[in-house]
């Protein structure tokens, strides 16, 4: 009885706060004039050209070409790469494999500034993927953790074979690195915790470990409750504990305020669709304009960002790669902007928090790529497990300190307890949420990849200083 009442109450609060957020957003867009703004002919043309550049399968993008990979289940992933997967040459090469995973509301193209770098293309095999439901990749019915993480894991295991990391004779012949941002980061934190053998290093930026957030929220609620009860017991001297309680709980309120859009994503589908597309996608456009940081943005840039979010149009959906591959059928059928709901469904179906029920196939393939798995290793990992959700692979956490969506005290405090040997936390003082696009932070991310693939020699902070003066390594072990 009490439980169902509190569930109803929570539902009502989430609904009300979601509606409030939409109303607030609509008012702000109307007052700024972006809500009713019609695109000019020039803007329409720019967008069309950008979509052709990013999504026409028959075109290379700055040294990278399009590839479609079909998993055993028939699920198709789209990605860009500088090397052709599954060829004798790629498999024999000793270039490390670096996989880039984007977040909301983006695609492979959020990495375009980093992966077009010629020196990087020389040194590593780049794979920049579209997540399920995004860009040119197939959609899922439900975006539960199990569905999403199973697909990502099967993809990464297959890529490792097709790029020569694992062969029948030997596994881990060369290094695999996963670089991820936002939702890609949230899910990769789970991969590093629950499937750490997938990569030798994770480089993860501006997305929380949900288990860490939960633990920080519990800690904050516990101590502020204690302070409140002190105040209650001794009302004459209540000022100090009350002030303390307010100070303790304020990061939580700030985070809830910043997370209004997550509540809006829980509303009925038509409202969510309206929220994400109204005013001709004015929400996405304003996100992208803000993502440019203080740097000048121009029409060319913004249309490329919009094309990254929107994916292939009906025209590009019909194109083919040089080897005759095409986009998934689902994508050709439900184009336009139907896929915005797929993006929202990561929030709606609890992809970050629901349990990952690994299939027998996944358990077996993860086992086969675990270094030293052949030896008696049943005891490995039983001790030194760390808190629930702790990451078990070497990880470099990159954090743009001016992130408007994520409060550091909720999302980063205590992170060091979640990291193993060979991990670091790197703070970027002049950067916001969009580390792959902001000029200084994308240089720092590129540098971190180089540092990793060149054998992790010397201190990562020293290596990063030249591309991002003032960068702070707050934790390293
Ligand atoms: C929205 O933008 C697209 C592309 O810029 C344009 O083709 C379309 O006409 C616009 N729709 C409205 C309602 O303004
Ligand atoms: C894709 O690119 C090819 C080669 O540049 C071009 O011939 C074709 O018209 C483009 N297709 C679409 C749909 O834009
Ligand atoms: C987990 O997955 C297996 C098959 O992959 C299924 O038989 C089992 O019922 C699932 N368990 C849960 C709790 O979903």
From TrEMBL:
Keywords of the record: Membrane, Transmembrane, Transmembrane helix
Domain AB hydrolase-1: 96-212
Ranges that cross the membrane: 12-30
GO biological process, one term: antibiotic biosynthetic process
Classification via InterPro entries: AB_hydrolase_1, AB_hydrolase_fold, AB_hydrolase_sf
Any GO CC annotation of this UniProt entry: membrane
Keyword Lipid metabolism among UniProt keywords: no
Coiled-coil residue spans: none
Stored Pfam families: Abhydrolase_1
Signal sequence, start to end: none
PANTHER family reported in the protein's UniProt record: HYDROLASE, PUTATIVE (AFU_ORTHOLOGUE AFUA_2G14860)-RELATED, MONOACYLGLYCEROL LIPASE
Name used for this protein in its record: AB hydrolase-1 domain-containing protein
Taxonomy of the source species: Eukaryota, Fungi, Dikarya, Ascomycota, Pezizomycotina
């Amino acid at each position: 009885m009490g439980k169902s009442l509190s569930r109803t109450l929570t539902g009502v609060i989430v609904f009300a706060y979601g509606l409030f957020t939409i109303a607030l957003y609509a008012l702000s867009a109307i007052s700024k004039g972006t809500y009713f703004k019609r695109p000019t002919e020039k803007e329409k043309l720019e967008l069309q050209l950008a979509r052709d550049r990013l999504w026409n399968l028959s075109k290379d993008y700055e040294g990278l070409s399009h590839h479609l990979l079909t998993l055993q289940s028939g699920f198709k992933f789209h990605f860009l790469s500088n090397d052709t997967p599954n060829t004798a040459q790629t498999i024999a090469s000793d270039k490390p494999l670096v996989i880039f995973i984007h977040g909301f509301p983006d695609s492979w193209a959020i990495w375009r500034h980093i992966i077009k770098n010629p020196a990087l293309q020389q040194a590593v095999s780049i794979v920049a993927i579209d997540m399920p439901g995004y860009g040119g990749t197939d959609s899922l019915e439900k975006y539960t953790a199990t569905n999403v993480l199973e697909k990502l894991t099967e993809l990464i295991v297959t890529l490792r074979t097709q790029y020569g990391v694992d062969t029948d004779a030997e596994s881990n012949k060369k290094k695999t690195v996963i670089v991820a941002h936002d939702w890609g980061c949230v899910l990769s934190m789970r991969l590093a915790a629950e499937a750490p053998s997938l990569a030798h290093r994770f480089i993860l930026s501006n997305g929380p470990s949900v288990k860490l957030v939960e633990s920080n929220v519990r800690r904050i609620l516990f101590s502020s409750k204690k302070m409140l009860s002190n105040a209650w017991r001794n009302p004459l001297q209540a000022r100090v504990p009350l002030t303390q309680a307010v100070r303790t709980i304020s990061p939580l309120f700030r985070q809830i305020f910043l997370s209004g859009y997550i509540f809006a994503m829980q509303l009925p589908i038509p409202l969510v669709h309206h929220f994400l597309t109204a005013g001709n996608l004015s929400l996405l456009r304003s996100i992208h304009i803000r993502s440019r940081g203080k740097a000048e943005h121009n029409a060319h840039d913004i249309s490329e960002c919009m094309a990254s979010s929107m994916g292939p149009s009906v025209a590009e959906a019909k194109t083919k790669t040089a080897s005759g591959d095409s986009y998934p059928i689902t994508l050709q059928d439900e184009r336009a902007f139907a896929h915005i709901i797929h993006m929202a469904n990561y929030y709606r179906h609890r992809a970050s928090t629901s349990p990952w029920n690994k299939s027998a196939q996944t358990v077996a393939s993860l086992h086969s790529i675990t270094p030293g798995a052949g030896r008696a290793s049943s005891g490995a990992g039983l001790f030194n497990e760390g808190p629930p959700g702790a990451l078990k692979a070497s990880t470099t956490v990159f954090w743009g300190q001016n992130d408007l969506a994520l409060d550091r005290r909720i999302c980063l405090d205590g992170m060091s307890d979640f990291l193993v040997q060979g991990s670091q936390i790197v703070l970027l003082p002049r950067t916001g949420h969009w580390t792959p696009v902001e000029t200084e932070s994308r240089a720092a991310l590129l540098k971190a990849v180089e540092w990793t693939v060149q054998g992790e020699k010397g201190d990562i902070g020293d290596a990063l200083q030249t591309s991002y003066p003032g960068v702070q390594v707050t934790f390293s072990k």
